[in-house]
Amino acid sequence: MTLQRCSWCSNDPLYIAYHDHEWGKPEHDEAQLFEMLCLEGQQAGLAWITVLKKREHYRTHFFQYPIAQIANLTDAELADKLTDAGLIRHIGKLKAIRDNAIAWQNLKEKVDDVPAWLWRFVDQHPCHNDVVNYRSAPVQTEISTKLSKALKQHGFKFVGPTTCYAFMQAVGMVNDHENHCAFK
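Below the sequence we write its predicted structure tokens.
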């Protein structure tokens, strides 16, 4: 018997692994939350599978390092990364990773626990939505709009309401697995 998955999940093994083991699972680890927030920003205007296929390059260039080290990247170091076809070669998006690391550190000075601060937007508990078909799921909500505004006020980049909703889905703040999905 074949497991039922969300209909957006293709037959690509990378996509299946992401769907089955990450997407919609509550995540509270600071480094993982930071990575996913930045990767969702990299997706802007692209398909998620594009970012997913480049994820290991992003980890090599950015996410294997502490957030404080990412915050210290220079413009010249970021410009050098534009030569790597394994990354999305958009200087604004690459600078956003560094700028988001700076914003994360600044926010951490104010709230101490950034993961708890993020999760407060859903009262510390995942929202489980009734999703018959992924096309009927929202692309943004009132909560993702509030999160977007709050992040922008703290200096984060590439964190619009749609990006924030995708982030919330990815890290399990929102469970939008389709009702028939074995991973709901």
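The mean pLDDT is 96.
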